[in-house]
Amino acid sequence: MAMSRPRPDNLTLRRAVRDHRAVLQQALRAHQADDLDTAERLYREVLELHAAQPDALHYLGVLCHQRGRSDEAVELIRTALKITPRHPDAHNNLGNIHKECDRPAEAEACYRRALECSAGHHNALGNLAVVLEVQSRLDEAFEAYGSLLQQAPDDARGHYLMGLFLRSHAQHMEHLEQAAECFGRAFELDPRNLRALEALGVTLYALQRRDEARGVYRDWLAREPDNPVPRHMLAACGGAEAPPRAADDYVRELFDGFADSFDEQLLKNLDYRAPQVLVEALAERLDAPAAALDVLDAGCGTGLCAPLLRPYARHLAGVDLSGGMVEKARARGGYDVLEVAELTGYLQARRAAWHLVVSADTLVYFGQLQEALVATYGALRPGGWLGFTLEALDEEADRVELTPSGRYRHTRRYVERVVAAAGFDDVRITTDTLRREAGQAVAGWVVMAQRPGPVTPVGDGDAA
């Protein structure tokens, strides 16, 4: 006689429901506090108690993406959406994952589905505008940004995004004037949005309203005297003496605050090309990719160079001063090791460690390059290569200037002198467009240089 299984009574079922809800709330609190280890453990505990709990599936998916497991994240959120197919936040977050994985068409479909579920989902509408812009569908993007501001006139993010759109695609000064109005309104609505305040200062300077730009930074500095961003930007606008390089606290503050939207902003600017032009230039000097070199991505940011460098590397390391950017690079994947450190000191501590050091748009935050170049020379093995980009100052003089963007520009004569003085030879400097800014092409130097000496055989020495 077969024995029947014991069946849970109603009280047991009610307790299980109550227990998994309590655990879910604990998981959400841990997630909000950035305690990802605890949050992941608790989400999985919820799913043990209730295997089809859609919120646990959804937010565990968000967490997995944060930890660089984006494929797993997509599957978890898709599973959640099979259970609750009209959940706009889940569609929006799935779109965000596709967007951050450079799949704009898939992201667009998710955002449109979120808006079908909730026409007033302002985050989804703003994100839709972003991915339309990424796909160069500028008229549709402008219409979406306009709809966002019409639906949510007090949405600070919407004004900020519209300002960025107008500035990025400005065809005449009126667009910059409108961008400045948007940035000012964004900051008025959300005084915590210091990115909007910085963008306002840069845009005012581009409009030749230099006294107003300096006033923005002076007022900001008066309110926050210890904030390195207005201090640096005031110098960039000519309101104080320019430092020899951007201070570490400025770079860290700038990029930690920019980390979440950095790729979004670069994706929106389809002409951002520094990683590609740099690796293309290196390909002309290096042997065919054979996954044989020890490579350093110096100033790795969110890891845009990783997929381009990976074919050359047996060991690919990245270093950046911004912990927020390094976390994004870790989520993107492709590196064997990532570290948060000041670049010059990091190089000085690693003698003869690399066959190749690449720095895309990092030394634009260094005015005086000598110390960093000498450190790079020491960190390369004999015969090793350095490749980097700079913004070009088109003058015959030997000089550097700090620009209102907060970045430095260097003349060719200056670059030639300091690269040679650091000990490099076989120096080649070409010009290319690195990005567009305020509707204008930003010209850059693409610099290749080799450390003299017999090439170190691949396999000699340990990867750093």
Shape: globular
CATH class of the domain at 268-450: Alpha Beta
Portion in helices: 40-55%
Distance between the termini: 68 Å
Nearest-integer average pLDDT: 90
**Spans of 5+ residues with little confidence (pLDDT < 50)?**
1-6, 10-14
| Main sheet attributes: strand count, strand direction, barrel closure | 9 strands, mixed
Number of strands: 9
- Strand portion: 5-15%
The topology string of helices and strands comes to HHHHHHHHHHHHHHHEHEHEHEHEEEHEE
- Structural class label: alpha/beta
Rg result: 25 Å
What count of helical segments does DSSP give?
A: 20
Q: Any idea what the CATH superfamily of the domain at 268-450 is called?
A: Vaccinia Virus protein VP39
Explain this structure to me?
It is globular and about 65 Å long. Helix content is 55%, strand content 14%. Helix 1 (10-32) runs antiparallel to helix 2, helix 3 runs antiparallel to helix 4 and helix 14 (248-268) runs parallel beside helix 17. Among the domains are: 163-241, Alpha Horseshoe (Serine Threonine Protein Phosphatase 5, Tetratricopeptide repeat); 268-450, Rossmann fold. With 464 residues, the protein is α/β, with parallel strands linked by helices. Keywords: Methyltransferase, Repeat, TPR repeat, Transferase. TPR repeats lie at residues 54-87. It holds the Pfam family TPR_16. GO terms for molecular function: methyltransferase activity.
